[in-house]
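Researcher: We're teaching a course module on how sequence relates to structure. For the next exercise, students receive a sequence and then see the predicted structure as tokens, so they can try to spot secondary structure elements on their own. Here is the exercise chain.
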Amino acid sequence: MSYFKVLGFEKEPFSTSPDPDFFYLSREHETALTNILIELRLKRGLSVILGDVGTGKTTLSRKLVQELRGREDCIFSIILDPSFEDEKIFLTSLVRNFDIHVDASLGGLSILDLREAVQRFLFQKGVSENRTVILIIDEAQKLSESSLEILRLLLNYETNEFKLLQLVLLGQLEIYPRIMNIPNFFDRISCKFTLNPLDFGETREMIEFRIRQAGYRSGMHLFLDEAVRDIHRHSRGYPRQITMLCHRALKSLVLKNRFVVDGAMIRELIDEEIKSGWRRKDLLLQKNSF
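Model: And here is the predicted structure for the students to work with:
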């Protein structure tokens, strides 16, 4: 039997998979999601969400996809790894992802052929069919300069009222200086947002949310406040680190036949991690906007 069933859960509460049903919407995550959805509805073009490793960008992208699935007026695609070697490979990927018809009967398609195929697709769907075409790119820091240039060109396709392609980039902070160095790309950003780590209250809410979402119905708190405080202090509010430490704490409950996670248990787990040499040493993400 899985450890989470022993503790009274229906599902694993602290999986690190980006399950949107287990995504705790902090104030910042909710603000980011709401702003993206507004930009998409208004067809403003480009939204950029930045955040340090483990701040919830990938899960936010899955939550966005979940929101879009119920909308028949939208056509969307998500790219999880935009490490394209050149422009042709990137354009070919777009053609495949959006299932764009191209006539390859005359031989290999050129970059110009692919660009024109994408352009025709955007006008057909956006103007003739009045649908919203959305491209979501996770791990956007992996985009090459040529890929960023392709996206800039695609954002040029527009009517007098709106952009034909709605682009959402979610990436680590390292892409920030690159964007800043491309003024005609930066100027097209309609929505700019930076995700930061959770505060103590949000950390407690996230833990409780995931426990209840996993089917825990007992009135007893599994994590005492002192435990949550040590979890927040050690994780520095990074959702992924919170999730991993809570997972280890629940396993420890089962192994030690205990019923509540207290501060002593968390400190013991932290000490074990420090002694193993696996503790992250990078600095906290500074709150900022761009």
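Model: If you want an answer key for the exercise: Residues 283-289 have pLDDT under 50 and may be disordered. Residues 3-15+198-276 form a domain with the Helicase, Ruva Protein; domain 3 fold (CATH 1.10.8).
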